[in-house]
């Protein structure tokens, strides 16, 4: 009976984790992955040091350090990186980004957004920065 209870508890926990994972945004998943990798690397380095393989741990840290540091910086949320644009977009800039003129309706904004995201999305050969500007412009114009 105890084994069945523990199994059902583990299944419930797994289902809860899968649901949370499916609803999470990409940025938080990247940060979580970076933390898991960092803690795993620290644990591996500590184990190598404790088992007398300190030279191997230091060599791996020297060789892989710059690569891991680059991944770590890329996984951090964009607002925390220095030099990133964090200024608010004005209505005039949003209209310019979406190539629209006042007055605009929600359907005009949505049509321009869809047209531009086909080009600007990173999966279509665009960039994250450009797609972010298009998203920001759409959000600003839909709020009014």
Summarize the structure.
This protein is mainly α.
Number of strands: 0
Distance between the termini: 59 Å
The total count of helices amounts to 6
Largest sheet: none
**Shape assignment:** flat
Question: Strand fraction band?
Answer: under 5%
Tell me what the structure shows.
- Helix content is about 75%, strand content about 0%.
- It has about 140 residues and is mainly alpha-helical.
- The chain has two domains: about 1-80, no CATH class; about 90-144, Helix Hairpins (Orthogonal Bundle).
- The N and C termini lie far apart (about 60 Å).
SSE map:
Blueprint: H1 2-23, H2 26-50, H3 54-75, H4 91-97, H5 106-120, H6 128-143
Helix pairs in contact: 2-3, 4-6, 5-6
Question: Can you tag this structure with a few keywords?
Answer:
single chain; mainly alpha; 2 domains; Helix Hairpins; 6 helices
């Amino acid at each position: 009976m105890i084994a069945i209870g523990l199994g059902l508890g583990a299944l419930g926990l797994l289902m809860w984790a899968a649901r949370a994972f499916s609803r999470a945004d990409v940025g938080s998943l990247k940060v979580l992955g970076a933390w898991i990798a960092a803690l795993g690397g620290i644990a591996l380095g500590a184990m190598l040091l404790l088992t007398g393989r300190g030279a191997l741990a230091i060599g791996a840290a020297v060789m892989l350090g710059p690569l891991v540091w680059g991944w770590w910086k890329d996984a951090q949320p964009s607002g925390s990186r220095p030099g990133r644009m964090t200024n608010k977009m004005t209505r005039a800039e949003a209209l310019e980004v979406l190539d629209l003129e006042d007055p605009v309706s929600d359907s005009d904004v949505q049509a321009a957004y869809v047209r531009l995201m086909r080009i600007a999305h990173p999966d279509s050969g665009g960039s994250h920065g450009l797609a972010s500007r298009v998203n920001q412009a759409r959000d600003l114009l839909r709020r009014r």
